Amino acid sequence: MTTAEALLNMRGVCKRFPGVQALDEAELEVVPGEVHVLLGENGAGKSTLMKVLCGQYTADAGVVEFAGEDHRPADPLEAEKQGLVMIHQELNLVAGLSAAENIFLGHEPTSGGLIHGEAMRQGARDLLRRLRCDVDPDIPVGRLSVAEQQLVEIARALRADARLLVMDEPTAALSDAEIEALFDVIRELCRSGVTIIYISHRMKEIFVVGNQVTVMRDGRTVGTRQVGQTDVGELIQLMVGRTIAEQIPKREVSIGEPVLEVEGLVREGVLGPISLAVHEGEILGVAGLMGSGRTELARAIFGADPIDAGEIRVGDRVLPGGDPAAAIAAGLGFITEDRKQQGLILQCSVAENIILTALDDISRFGVIDLGAERERAGILVDRLRIQTPSLEQEVMNLSGGNQQKVVLARWLAARCRVLLFDEPTRGIDVGAKVEIYELIGELVEQGVAILLISSEMPELLGLADRVTVMHEGELQGILPRAEVTQERIMELALQFTA
To answer: Is 250 exposed, middle or buried (0-12, 13-18, 19+ CB in 10 A)?
Structure first.
């Protein structure tokens, strides 16, 4: 690709905030009619670069050319007039206004000084029909699904005659079916002449929808590749400076005595009977398809759900079913699949979330020692390298990776003997994944027993000492590390015979 062919050319772009060099000589070239994926860890500079492009930030240095002309929009409205629109991860819609009103907001068709409602509705219908969307233009967008709201945002971009559409993590809140429908819309937009810059950290999406991919790291552009001429391994190495093997380093640890023992566990119609054991310093992986009962197993062991039969022991303590407090007291911790709904109190501070499992240690006569809270939380924030402005920061304002580290810090504060990890790296970037893998390695070296539930085969293959596979609430076998392969796991998960 040459500069002459580019619709967009960004060279040497720099942007500094107090104490942070957000962009450092960043570069990006995008040709017309393609889906150009912008890839990188949280904090790599992707969104900052796009905000410079769309007029939300002014670059400190560098050259930006759009359609062959110097491009320095004073604000997003000026960028939109030039045919450049950004759809943010947090959608920018007015919930109480209709779909048509949102699409034409600030650009309403008028007649005799009054808004021409029918013309606006018909225009909205035409734009939504182009996106194969049958949303009623009169419905308030607050009543639409996230996927439908996204299509309203795209329709608004089409109303503005967007030549270049920037989409920031557009699939973050969509189902698989909604994602595929969005990809169809993106392909249709490209066929009609719209160029897409697609920001994502989901590797598999790149190879489904992308034509080219540019990788950023620490505010710099580290490489651009044709999607058909690269692979996941190369892209990850560009993102984090490590190979896949270096990402998931397996630590060789002496396996000790059983710490968690489950015998004959049954939850009628859901689980069982299930028997397993996890030893000191061991990682027992749990594989299975969606609906196989993996999360239900973890919840039953932890006491979040009741059981109908069976025995759960941590060390020499038998746990009463359905009693999380007893499980925690015995040294059992649970990193849940959904950190926002089940793992965190989003409106509380980082320190308050971390210290929840250790309140007895820092309280006297029911009064929390705030100094002790800060001290203990501060130690764990430093140990896990949690990026937060302060211990008082509301945890809802942290990135997904840092939120997950806060959940982990809470259970480290409880000094657990057994940890149940349910999809510990879901929805976080590659760099944060590496840090969590390193922490898991440190924990097993200290003798912690880990039950690791994961849908990501590389995690199971790279971390687990043994892998058990679930199907319809039952264990289908436990594979020693030497026999763990993706094919064997899938055979058991799908009930195929080898």
So the answer is: middle
